[in-house]
Design brief:
The chain has 13 helices and 9 strands. It has 281 residues and is of the alpha/beta class. It has a single domain, classed as Aldolase class I (TIM Barrel, Alpha-Beta Barrel). Strands 5-4-3-2-1-9-8-7-6 form a 9-stranded parallel beta sheet. The chain is globular.
Length: 281
């Protein structure tokens, strides 16, 4: 990937702005099509207005192995409403008519492979997507995927975990662009009450192998989590807590309001966190 492309994506620009301001970003995950694509359109605009820095649109999949029960149920509802990868890409085009918030397509690899890599990348790039995270694609098997996605100005985001060795972290970092997604704990997604005690040491280890922004996810749900992460990571990824707001809301409007309130509180925690990083000159 060329330096020019790396520096020019919406994702990279947003993280550069956050770093210059000394802030921590909020990466908001929701499942596209839960409960409908029209509802998701409303939710994305509400999240962006509330201050979400990057929005991950989960492509619903029938066997989401990395996801906990909250996101599994969201995938089931989205699939039941008829959501497909093609429909999610059309949604991205709709969002781009009124928002320039960075958008990441969060998908298992099977739907992408079924559409065809070239068709997927071309359609996603034209629609206005900024990056793709294929959760079950390993960096070692991603050469063609990365080449095609980068040709369409799409960042390729990969996952690192507490179990990743130093050698593997080097491979993950070399394959990633936009940001690196660090899983805070082993297991599946889901809101937790506290962050792992070993997370600061893990973040220091990952920073040895990359200059990319690092976003921490899995179990991040509370303002206190964001506050603690402020001096350690570049962004906090919040997923299950937001998906849960959608699940329990009585109407899409109520869900949008709840999402907005939740993100505003998380952003406020980031601005006044316990360990807010120094702004760069």
């Amino acid at each position: 990937m060329t330096a020019a492309l790396h520096d020019s994506t919406r994702i990279s620009k947003r993280f550069a702005e956050l770093r210059a301001a000394g802030g921590i970003g909020i990466v908001a995950y929701i499942t596209a099509g839960d409960p409908t694509l029209d509802g998701t359109h409303k939710f994305v605009l509400a999240l962006a207005e509330a201050g979400a820095d990057v929005i991950e649109l989960g492509v619903p999949f029938s066997d989401p192995l990395a996801d906990g029960p909250t996101i599994q149920r969201a995938s089931e509802r989205a699939l039941k409403s008829g959501t497909t990868l093609a429909g999610v890409l059309q949604l991205v085009s709709r969002i781009r008519q009124s928002s320039q918030v960075p958008l990441v397509l969060f998908s298992y690899y099977n739907p992408i492979l079924q559409m065809g890599l070239e068709k997927f990348a071309a359609t996603a790039g034209q629609a206005g997507a900024d990056g793709v995270l294929a959760t079950d694609l390993t960096p070692e098997e991603s050469d063609e995927y990365r080449r095609i996605l980068h040709a369409h100005d799409l960042d390729t985001i990969f996952l690192a975990a507490p179990t990743s060795t130093d050698e593997r972290l080097k491979i993950i970092a070399a394959a990633s662009s936009g940001f690196l997604y660090l899983i805070s704990r082993t297991g599946v997604t889901g809101a937790k009450d506290s962050l792992p005690d070993e997370l600061p040491a893990l973040l220091r280890r990952v920073h040895r192998f990359t200059d990319l922004p690092i976003a921490v996810g899995f179990g991040i749900s509370l303002p206190g989590h964001v506050s603690v992460l402020g001096g350690l990571a570049d962004a906090a990824v919040v997923g299950s807590a937001l998906v849960s707001e959608i699940e329990k809301a009585s109407t899409p409007d109520a869900a949008a309001a709840a999402l907005s309130e939740r993100v505003q509180k998380l952003k406020e925690a980031g601005r006044h966190g316990l360990s807010r990083r120094e702004a760069t000159p």
